[in-house]
Amino acid sequence: MNFASRIAAWQARGGRQGLPWQGTTDPYRIWLSEIMLQQTQVGTVIPYYLRFLERFPDVAALAAAGQDEVMPYWAGLGYYARARNLHRCAQTVVADWGGRFPRTAREIATLPGIGRSTAAAIAAFAYGERSPILDGNVKRVFARHFGIEGDPSRRAVDQQLWELADAQVAAAADLDMTAYTQGLMDLGATRCTRGKPACGQCPVADTCVARRDGRQAELPTPKARKAVPERETSMLVLAHEGRVLLRQRPSPGIWGGLWSLPEFDADADPLAAARGLGLEPDAHYKLADFTHVFTHYRLHVRPWLVFVQKHVGLRESVQAERWIAAKQLTDTALPAPVKKLLAGVASDLLREE
């Protein structure tokens, strides 16, 4: 039995079963799960997936919503460009495809936010198309099993892996694409993991080059690490009568489309910063510093809680700036660290009402 057929057969008996997005051929639900699962673990995604579907049950509902309606259902999943592209993609499907997803991987890959591997997964699960996937986990499986040297992010290595992926599908005439595609995902996520792979439970361990040569820790070839830049900022929790001043982050960009706190230089005087916004500060308190790690840098935050007096500077008319009641913060699209910060001072804010 060839590699692909063995993976498909193993998935039926040893792969993950009963996930909310399994057992459907609805391309909308499959697409949503694939986007959410990019760089996010299954256990984290499941509750977001279920809540999102309850609010936006189909592509038309998502396309008709405003971005401000969508972002609260994504807040906390991270990599927020995915949510913005998700919304754009839904609008494109409705406007250009009559509300129906394209039926081929090549066409699906033309939609916003959908790359080659994700398009192939959607086409395989929804339509049974014989189009191979090659996400990060699958690259690791292929690099180890076939002994592929070199950083998979390099163009030449990536192309070599894609050729291998194509060859495995071509070699299996009666391949169940749903089982094979899901099996590759399951193998990479639960057996051929980055650290301490469970080779004894792998269905293709007997033909794996890395296991034969004891090179599981060497393959795939790791990417050269770069020093992670460090940045500093101060955030102001500006409170007035149980409300907090929030600003919407511009799109695209870090936390684009989400509501966050006003930021200033790390060594800024919080009282002077508040006055610079036309506010008159009253009591103020230093909150605990924290660090948030993004993909490309670390952000060190110095937060302050500043209570302000009523003032004409409360600019309700500014489109990207709003005073939000403390009771409404849980339903507001906030970055995860900002939501955690505000949750920590919620009792102080509510007492001010």
> Cα distance, first to last residue?
69 Å
Q: Strand tally, please?
A: 8
Q: Write down the domain tally.
A: 2
Task: Give helix and strand order, one letter per element, not per position.
Answer: HHHHHHHHHHHHEEEEHEEEEHH
Major beta-sheet overview: 8 strands, mixed
CATH class of the largest domain: Mainly Alpha
CATH H-tier superfamily of the largest domain: Hypothetical protein, domain 2
Gross geometry: elongated
Description:
This protein has helices at residues 3-14, 27-37, 42-55, 59-64, 67-70, 81-97, 105-108, 116-127, 136-146, 155-170, 177-190, 209-213, 270-276, 336-344, 346-351, and strands at residues 230-240, 243-248, 259-260, 263-264, 280-286, 290-293, 298-309, 321-325. The chain is elongated. It has 15 helices and 8 strands. It folds into 2 domains: 3-213, Orthogonal Bundle (Endonuclease III, domain 1); 230-351, Nucleoside Triphosphate Pyrophosphohydrolase (Alpha-Beta Complex). Strands 1, 2, 3, 4, 5, 6, 7 and 8 form an 8-stranded mixed beta sheet that branches.
Keywords summarizing the entry:
single chain, Nucleoside Triphosphate Pyrophosphohydrolase, alpha+beta, Endonuclease III, domain 1, 353 residues, 2 domains, 8-stranded mixed sheet
Short recap of the structure:
With 353 residues, the protein is an alpha+beta fold.
Secondary-structure map:
Layout: H1 3-14, H2 27-37, H3 42-55, H4 59-64, H5 67-70, H6 81-97, H7 105-108, H8 116-127, H9 136-146, H10 155-170, H11 177-190, H12 209-213, E1 230-240, E2 243-248, E3 259-260, E4 263-264, H13 270-276, E5 280-286, E6 290-293, E7 298-309, E8 321-325, H14 336-344, H15 346-351
Parallel strand pairs: 1-7
Antiparallel strand pairs: 1-2, 1-4, 2-3, 2-8, 5-7, 6-7
Helix pairs in contact: 1-11, 2-3, 2-8, 8-11, 9-11
